[in-house]
Automatic annotation (TrEMBL):
This is Ankyrin-1-like isoform X1. ANK repeats lie at residues 82-114, 115-147, 147-179, 212-244. The keyword Glycoprotein does not apply. SMART domains: ANK. InterPro entries: Ankyrin_rpt, Ankyrin_rpt-contain_sf, Cul2-RING_E3_ligase_SR.
Amino acid sequence: MGSTSEIGASIIEAGASGDLNQLKAIRKKVGDEWEFRKICDQYADFSTGRNVLHHAVEIGHFEMCKFLIKNVQVYVDALTYKMDTPIAQAAKGGRVKIVEFLIEHGAKVSLANIEGFTALHYALLRGNLELMELLLNNRAPVDAQCVDGTPLQIAVSRGNVEAVKSLLSHGANPNIFYAVVDSPLVIAVKSRSFECLKLLLEFNADPNLYFNGLSALSAAARDSDTRFLKSLLAAKADPNLLHKDVLKPIEEAAMVRNRAAMEILFPVTKRLAHYPNWTVDGIIEYIQSEEFAAMGKENMIMLLTKLDIGGMNDACNKNFYSAIIQYRKATNLRPCNTTWISKLSMWEARLGIKTQALLGAQKCITLMPDLPVPVRGEIDAAANVIFKKFLMASLAFCLEPYNKDIGHSFGVCLFDYFVWLTQMSSPDEILSII
């Protein structure tokens, strides 16, 4: 019939076009059942890595999927170059029947691609409640992190009340917000989904959860709809939390001249000594002054310095999780600071948080495309070796992220590379090449 590569190309063509008769004819001509299955499993698009099952799933050809899985017995968890499985591909297309069939034949619902997306994330991005319930009932990881956040964060950001209710009922944690820095409560306020906010509070979301300078109460103080503010205060959100480096909710309201919110907050907010006139009008007047602006700039510098020093101290004491939190705050306040991004990626690699470490590395390379760089006019030969090892390890990891040995090698290379990067004599030396 031709070479193995020609057979593989014909199989891919049949899958992409949905021609089941052609696929059966190819199988008959190959003759050897084991050889045909091997070709179906191994041959894929050069550009995407999708094999024949991925193609059948993508176009929603249920009969072809049945033929490949039941008759040919292809591998149900094949990966594309981006690590999407057939079940993820089916979820992305909203193919409920195919997802159900794949689950019945052993497909894993927990596998994530290189950006952390699982089938459940894709179901929520489509707003497909039937598919979401199917996956949750088959133990899809409810708190899985991707670059867009957890399934709960995605559902809240879209104001999908039924999805939020279902996720919380299946045990979703309303206080997780690692990849996306806004907590679900803050997202509910920002997306103006009052019903989602009420649900989160009913499921014990922490109204005082604070990260990166913004609590749910601070976000609500900026919104003209005071229902958010009143509900959070009723849930015991504290307008006087002692964070010296951030604005109090009443100050957030004053920044946008939200008088209605200020009048609610004023009776429950303790007086701040640096305001000469502690009234609603006095707070608004002072917060618009040059004196306040200068103080805010100074406070930001102090905060960033504190985060940097605190993060390094935590890392030196091998408290890497705390170091990650410190540098995540810093990089969200200064998203183009490659020194801090590199440190964050380094600690993530040490803890085996591979997806986030890799994304951080990619961001560093995007911001600094010429790395490794000349240091004081001379090429650092050792840096070149380290950098090449890092790139090769990253590639191997991308192609096979579930191989423990490759994952370990990637972590080691990433750590070595960023140790070199952060040991350059000064941040200015790094930034000077951008």
